[in-house]
Design goal:
Layout: H1 9-17, H2 21-31, H3 38-48, E1 56-57, H4 71-84, H5 98-111, E2 115-117, H6 127-137, H7 148-154, H8 162-183, H9 187-190, H10 200-208
Helix pairs in contact: 1-10, 4-5
Length: 212
């Protein structure tokens, strides 16, 4: 099943508008979270999104429920690679430069440790948790989050390593390019006005994600 390549603008807007309101609220809350509160809020949102199920997800140091690393540590480790990706735009082929691919690989390796115990993947986080965490921490630049619904739309098999994740991101890139060429517009211009300020990865995530 294609993602958005075969949609016209009205169909695309319908997809975005049907995105579940609870996730819109979660996103707006995230964007309004002050930097010092982000570790705790990251945990709140990712648990609400069931990002690490069935494994246990890490928490902040003050919660004191497991040994280090804590969510603060993961965010600190990721900061330099998030900075590398400050201009990442999944619409643009240039966003898949060698430096950006290296940063994506490092982020995958860091956020594998988003979970620390459980029966899946020897306790490590998988693509759902990793991609959701990175979608949040890049404020929607690197997206979509590859849950089962998004993978189903794109026909993407289960993603088990960083190279496969980057390949899946490139599939999303190609889907967006095809939509824009077919409709002679950009994804931001096609997006409903109330969401047009969002970064491309987040808009695309909404178009393919769970509906109300």
């Amino acid at each position: 099943m294609p993602g958005i390549a075969n949609l016209n603008v009205d169909q695309f807007q319908d997809r975005v508008n049907r995105f579940a309101a609870q996730y819109v609220d979660d996103w707006n809350c995230w964007l309004n979270t002050q930097p010092n509160a982000r570790p705790r809020q990251l945990g709140i949102v990712l648990r609400r999104w069931q990002a690490c199920r069935p494994n246990r997800m890490r928490r902040t140091q003050i919660e004191n429920t497991h040994d280090a690393p804590y969510l603060e540590d993961l965010i600190y480790q990721a900061a330099q690679y998030i900075q590398v990706l400050q201009d990442f735009d999944i619409r643009e082929e240039a966003s898949f430069s060698a430096n950006n691919r290296e940063a994506l690989i490092e982020l995958w390796n860091i956020f594998q440790n988003l979970s620390y115990h459980g029966r899946a993947r020897n306790g490590l986080a998988g693509v759902v948790g990793i991609s959701k965490a990175i979608l949040l921490l890049t404020d929607g630049r690197v997206g979509p989050a590859f849950d089962s619904e998004v993978r189903g739309h794109l026909g993407t098999a289960n993603v088990i390593n960083s190279n496969q994740w980057i390949t899946a991101l490139r599939t999303a890139h190609q889907d967006i390019v095809a939509f824009e060429q077919s409709n002679q517009t950009t994804i931001q211009q096609a997006t409903p006005q109330q969401h047009a300020h969002l970064n491309t990865g987040r808009i695309y995530d909404m178009a393919l994600g769970p509906g109300a």
